[in-house]
């Protein structure tokens, strides 16, 4: 799968595509206590796509990702998943799907946020991670090239 194919798929499956910096995070349990997730506060720096009524309308969004660390009955519980935790202060490219019930966003179709200030685009798959050697400018140009082109298949 090429980088261009990845960007097209992520574009078509995304309500919004933004570049933003992570400013804080908070991990918590669901009400039933069986699932750990982390809410990241992200300052939106650039909006590359915004096509949903629930899409990015603010300068700050909440990005939710499975996993995290929580204190439960005096014990630290670490719930890992396939998505690497985001780093506070880092800038990422996010392919987002809105979560209407919470007003937050999650990675579209299980894709993770993409660090834009690193040498490689990292998108894990179930089998193994796939890496594309590229830079942020190339990714931004690919996104801009695919955003005006609507997906011809149904979601």
Give an overview of the whole structure.
The protein contains two helices and ten strands. The protein has helices at residues 3-12, 136-146, and strands at residues 16-29, 36-50, 60-66, 68-72, 75-79, 91-99, 104-107, 114-115, 120-124, 129-133. The strands form three sheets. Strands 1, 2, 3, 6, 7 and 8 form a six-stranded antiparallel beta sheet that branches. A two-stranded antiparallel sheet has the order 4-5. Strand 6 and strand 7 (104-107) form a beta hairpin. It is elongated, with a radius of gyration of 16 Å. It starts with a helix and ends in a 9-residue tail after the last helix.
Key terms:
single chain; 155 residues; 6-stranded antiparallel sheet; two-stranded antiparallel sheet; 2 helices; 14% helix; 46% strand
Distance between the termini: 20 Å
Q: Number of DSSP strands? A: 10
Relative strand content: over 45%
Give the overall average pLDDT. 75
Largest sheet: 6 strands, antiparallel
As a percent range, the share of helical residues equals 10-25%
Contiguous uncertain segments of 5+ residues:
125-129
Order of helices and strands: HEEEEEEEEEEH
Structural class: mainly beta
Shape: elongated
- If helices are DSSP runs of H or I spanning 4 or more residues, what is the number of helices? 2
Using only CA atoms, what is the Rg?
16 Å
Strand and helix layout:
Blueprint: H1 3-12, E1 16-29, E2 36-50, E3 60-66, E4 68-72, E5 75-79, E6 91-99, E7 104-107, E8 114-115, E9 120-124, E10 129-133, H2 136-146
Antiparallel strand pairs: 1-2, 1-6, 2-3, 4-5, 6-7, 6-8, 9-10
């Amino acid at each position: 799968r090429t980088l261009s194919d990845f960007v097209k798929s992520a574009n078509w499956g995304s309500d919004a595509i933004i570049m933003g910096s992570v400013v804080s995070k908070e991990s918590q349990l669901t009400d039933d206590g069986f699932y750990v997730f982390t809410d990241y506060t992200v300052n939106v720096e650039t909006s590359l796509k915004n096509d949903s009524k629930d899409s990015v309308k603010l300068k700050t969004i909440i990005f939710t990702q499975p996993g995290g660390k929580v204190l439960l009955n005096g014990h630290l519980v670490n719930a890992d998943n396939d998505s690497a935790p985001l780093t506070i202060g880092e800038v990422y490219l996010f392919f987002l799907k809105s979560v209407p019930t919470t007003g937050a966003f999650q990675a579209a179709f299980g894709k993770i946020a993409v660090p834009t200030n690193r040498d490689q685009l990292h998108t894990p798959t179930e089998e193994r991670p796939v890496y594309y050697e590229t830079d942020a400018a190339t990714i931004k140009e690919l996104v801009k090239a695919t955003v005006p082109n609507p997906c011809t298949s149904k979601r």
